[in-house]
Amino acid sequence: MSMDLKKRKRYLPAGWYPDNAAEIRSLVSDWTKLQNNLSAFAIVAPHAGWYFSGDLAAKAVWSLRDCDTVAILGGHLRRGDPILFAEEENFDCTVRDAANDAQVLNALNSELKDAGIQEIAPDHDIDNSVEIMLPLAALRFPEARLVWLRVPPDYKARELGSALARAASTCRKKLAVIASTDLTHYGPNYGFMPHGVGESAVDWVRNENDRGFINAVLSMDTDKVLGHARDRFSACSSGAVAAAISFSLNNGAKRGVLIGHKLSFDMHPDRSFVGYAAIAFVP
C-alpha cells in the first residue's frame, strides 16, 4: 500500500458502504429519524457492511454528544500488538474530507509515554473497523476533526482511554469516542461452532455468548470485557471497547445503554453469522 501522507484514501469498495455521498445521506437520514438524545461520551458500534449493521452504527453515532473531535477506535489486533494511529493529514470520508487532529494525537502520544507505553506506531494497513465509521462521524459532526486509532485487547486499552481523556483536556477539546467491534463470529467460515449448526446455535450466540459480552460492556468493567472476548470469542475488537469505557469513566459516565442488538442471520440466514450491538456510555 503506497502512502500519501496528505490524505488517507477510501479503500473499502461500495459493497461495504455507499461510494456516493447522496446515498449515504439518504440512508443515514432514514436510520436516524428517531433521536434518542443520549448525549453519550462514547459509543460502541458494529463495523460490518452497512447492509448488515449500518443502521445500528448510525443510531449509535447519532447518540454522541456534540464535540470538536471524534476519536474512532478500531481493532483486529492481538494482545501485545502496538497501538496504531493514522498519520495522514486528512481522511476521505466520502461525504467530505476531514482533518486529522494532530494536536490531540501529539498530546495523546505524550500521555501514553508518561504512562509507560511506548508501543504506538503508524497504521499502514487497510482495515474496515475504523474506515467504515468515517462517513458516519464526518456526517454527524460536519466541522469535527477525526483521530484514527486501533487498539490491542490488553492493558494498553485501559491506558489509552484514560490518556485520551487527559489529552482532550490538555488541548481543551471536546472529544467523543467511537469504539468499533462486531460480536461473536460463528460457524464454519470462522472455525468456531461449539453448538453445531441450526436454531440452537443461533439462540446460543444471540442470548448467551453475545449477551454475555453485552452485559460486561453495560457493567463498564474493562476486565470483564477483555476477559469475555478472550475466553468466549465474543468480540473481534474488544480493546476498542475497553478504551471507550475507560475514556467514558474518566469523563464521568455512570452507565451503559443498549441501543440495539441483532445478528447477520436476521437479514441473511446462514450457517455462518456474526453478532452486532450498539451501546452508549452516558452521564
UniProtKB/TrEMBL annotation:
Organism field: uncultured spirochete
Gene3D superfamilies in UniProt: LigB-like
Name used for this protein in its record: AmmeMemoRadiSam system protein B
Homology family: Belongs to the MEMO1 family.
Signal peptide positions (record): none
Record-linked InterPro entries: MEMO1_fam (IPR002737)
